[in-house]
Amino acid sequence: MTQAQTQRRDGPHDPSQSYHYGVIARAIELIDASEAPLGLEALASEMGMSVAHFQRVFSNWAGVSPKRYQQYLTLGHAKTLLRERFTTLEAAHSTGLSGTGRLHDLFVRWEAMSPGEYAAGGAGLEIFWGWFETPFGAAVVMGTDKGICGLSLAAETGEEAAMAELLARWPAATFTEDPMRLRPWVLTAFGMEGTLDRAPLYLIGAPFQIKVWEALLALPEGAVTTYGAIAQAIGNPRAVRAVGTAVGRNPIGYLIPCHRVLRKSGELGGYHWGLPMKRAMLGYEAARTDAL
């Protein structure tokens, strides 16, 4: 694959998605840098936008006002999530519940590659890919004929690095650019269009990783958990560090919701695409959950 092939095409996407997230990302940087909450006027001024325009763009993306959204970005809110929306996962597994969030319910249908196939590095596997605009900026999405197998956001890393990250996961696979083949799954996955009832996932990973990712898929939208709770849920309570590694190796970030995993102290912990992105995702889901 040449470097030219890694550049974003004019494919099936809504450019306003990336524009809106770009505004949100810059606003979050300002909020993080401020020792006190920033008012609407101050934020709009720092962004070089009128109050009305900033309020409209922000609310279109987040679903709530900038003031309300700032509450979702604080450490205090993370601790509140752990206290009020903590999911132990054992209960979800024992009852068969998948949660009430629209996003999660789209992904109850999934299957995994066999350990032998995974060990072969994708040999004999054809993977289709394309660039799409998502609520969190441009993303390269990859999939097989069985479902979405990879997603990498470019807002923090850049497009070339986002593409290289996924290509390196399955070095023996054949990659074919075909965004139209993936388009219905992607639009359904991000709630941008109800083109399908479900967007299937195809999990490509080692057996332990897949057990961790399965546990993540049991998390309802708007809920959070901890690394320790996941370790308990998969029957290996001492494997907290290994769980953290598996969470970090998730190839379908956001769709397998590793951003919903917090430290037991309530701190956000690390995130592949940076803590501002993790805060944005948690805030985005919290706003929509509270609006229900």
Summarize the structure.
The protein is α/β, with parallel strands linked by helices and 292 residues long. The chain is globular. The protein has helices at 15-33, 40-47, 51-62, 66-72, 75-84, 90-95, 102-105, 115-119, 159-167, 179-189, 207-217, 227-233, 240-248, 275-291; strands at residues 110-112, 126-134, 137-144, 147-153, 174-177, 201-203, 225-226, 261-262.
Question: Could you describe the 3D structure shown?
Answer:
With 292 residues, the protein is an alpha/beta fold. The chain has 2 domains: 3-10 and 86-291, Arc Repressor Mutant, subunit A (Orthogonal Bundle), CATH 1.10.10.10; 15-82, Homeodomain-like (Arc Repressor Mutant, subunit A, Orthogonal Bundle). 46% of the residues lie in helices and 13% in strands. The chain is built from 14 helices and 8 strands. It has a 4-stranded mixed β-sheet with strand order 4-3-2-5, with helices on both faces. Strands 1-6 form a two-stranded parallel sheet. Helix 1 crosses helix 3, helix 2 (40-47) packs across helix 3 (51-62) and helix 12 packs across helix 13 (240-248).
